[in-house]
Amino acid sequence: MYLAIDFGITNTDIIVSSDGENKEFFSVESENITDSFFYKIFSHCGIQVNEINEIAITGGKSSSSKDTLDNIPIFKVNEINAIGFGAKDLYDIKEKAFVVISAGTGTACVYGNGNEFNHLGGISVGGGTLQGLSNLLIHTSNSYEVNKLSIEGNKNNIDLLIGDVVNEIGSLYPEITASNFAQTRLRDNFSKSDIASSLSNMVGEVIGTVSYLNALLCGVQAVYFIGRTSLNETVKKGIEERLKLANIKGYFAKDRQHGNVRGALRALIEK
Question: What is the mean pLDDT of residues 92-106?
Fold first, then answer.
């Protein structure tokens, strides 16, 4: 039996697989990487130590983890390779060259060329930004609640659009955001749902902009997304609106939140 673990800042994702193909997914709240946390993971997944052949780990401070646990080999996968392999596994990518955006607490951009992966860079805006600012502005950091509120709200009550300030500017259409949160300069008492909508959209627009710029830089026509942040529907829409400006296609698999841990497992199987 193989075990893959992605130690995230907020969530730790796990795959249990008997053969590398059939997969069971689990998630627990993250803790410091200690022996006791490994045993807690085993218990949560309902597996015994003697059932495990090898463990693949990635994320967090996993690179400083020990190399074995109860004589079980621990294979450390650097996060860039986990992102690249994860996208290949999740999307069955056939192109030789591709760009992956891992939108988690922050956002990482990775270029894939076959099974070689390079870190293009990243930005500090991501799910952590959304949760933190949501907590400050609407007093909740719960991702499900923020998503629900953002769908109910209307960002246009808070943002200024291109059509609000100019007749036309280049190829930008009137519904594109000109300035996030700009209407809050003039009045207050906005609804929680409108704030959640504007905030989620802003995070999406930032991620979408860095995504299409990296796609153009690498000469590709599509970007593959993994990570939990784009599970927020308004974030996803904000990303897609920005990609549209550069005619870049965005792919969003249903279970994209498991991208990194998929990559750790695939790296283990292919090593």
Answer: 94
Domain 2-76 adopts which CATH fold? Nucleotidyltransferase; domain 5 (3.30.420)
Q: 29-66 burial by CB neighbour count: b if 16+ within 10 A, else e?
A: ebeebeeebbeebbeebebeeeebeebbbbbbebeebe
Q: What share of the chain is helix, strand, coil (3-state, %, to 5)?
A: 45, 25, 30
Q: What is the pLDDT of residue 187?
A: 85
Closest CA to 123 of 182, 200, 59, 209: 209
Fold match, 2-76 / 123-256: yes
Average pLDDT rounded to a whole number, residues 72-100: 95
Q: CA quadruple 219, 225, 227, 230: dihedral positive or negative?
A: positive
d(Cα 222, Cα 220) in Å, to the nearest integer?
6
Mean pLDDT on 113-121 = 95
Q: What is the pTM (predicted TM-score) of this model?
A: 0.93
DSSP run (H or E) holding 98: strand 97-103
8-state DSSP, 115: T
Instruction: Judge: domain 123-256, CATH 3.30.428.10.
Output: no
Enumerate the domain spans of the chain: 2-76, 123-256
- Taking a C-beta distance cutoff of 8 angstroms, is the pair 77, 24 a contact? no
Residue 169 φ/ψ, nearest 5 degrees: -150, 110
